[in-house]
């Protein structure tokens, strides 16, 4: 049997991803923190949620759910988002998704998300500002919003378009805390969101 170069590359990616997935399954619940598989490898976030991070998520969830139709939710927590074809396993801090798209066994299909929202961690900001701005368009997530309690700023990324290095967001709208911000079809206030202690 002849395997075309693209097929061979896909098989290598699949094997590599499955090996990382098996490793995560074997250490699940034995090590603290959150593990994700990115295009660069495994990312381990020591999850010691700090007040401003969790409080920001709470405010964002409540504000979004106040303006969205009832069939959509701002979900925090499990399960993960998995795109086996890209070799990526991620867990956004908050997922805007239709209730109907949550009724699946296992991981969520990232292409059903309306938006992913991340609150930047103090210890690993590049995971949100660099890694996820690369991975989320590859996974087909149409809107990605970042809130950064370190600087009281953020950005919303939209308009996935093809590039030589793969799909990327074409539009970035920066904001500062206190301004209104639009995530997908809904506009919410960023007033009084908490900041990390300096």
Automatic annotation (TrEMBL):
One of its GO terms (molecular function) is endonuclease activity. It comes from the Bacteria. Residues 33-160 form the Putative restriction endonuclease domain. It comes from Streptomyces roseirectus. Keywords: Endonuclease, Hydrolase, Nuclease. InterPro entries: Nuclease_put_TT1808, Restrct_endonuc-II-like, Uma2. This is Uma2 family endonuclease.
């Amino acid at each position: 049997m002849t395997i075309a170069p693209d097929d061979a590359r896909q098989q290598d990616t699949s094997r590599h991803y499955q090996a990382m997935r098996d490793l995560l399954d074997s250490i699940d619940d034995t090590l603290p923190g959150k593990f994700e598989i990115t295009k660069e490898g495994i990312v381990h976030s020591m999850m010691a949620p700090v007040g401003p991070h969790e409080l920001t998520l709470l405010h964002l969830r409540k504000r979004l759910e106040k303006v969205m139709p009832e069939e959509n939710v701002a979900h925090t927590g499990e399960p993960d988002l998995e795109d086996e074809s890209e070799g990526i396993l991620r867990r956004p801090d908050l997922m805007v998704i239709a209730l109907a798209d949550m009724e699946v066994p296992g991981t969520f299909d990232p292409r059903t998300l309306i938006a992913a929202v991340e609150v930047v961690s103090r210890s690993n900001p590049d995971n949100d500002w660099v890694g996820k701005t690369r991975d989320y368009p590859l996974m087909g997530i149409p809107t990605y919003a970042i809130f950064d309690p370190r600087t009281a700023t953020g950005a919303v990324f939209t308009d996935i378009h093809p590039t030589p290095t793969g799909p990327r967001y074409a539009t970035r709208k920066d904001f500062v805390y206190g301004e209104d911000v639009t995530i997908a079809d809904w506009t919410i206030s960023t007033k009084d969101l908490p900041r990390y202690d300096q």
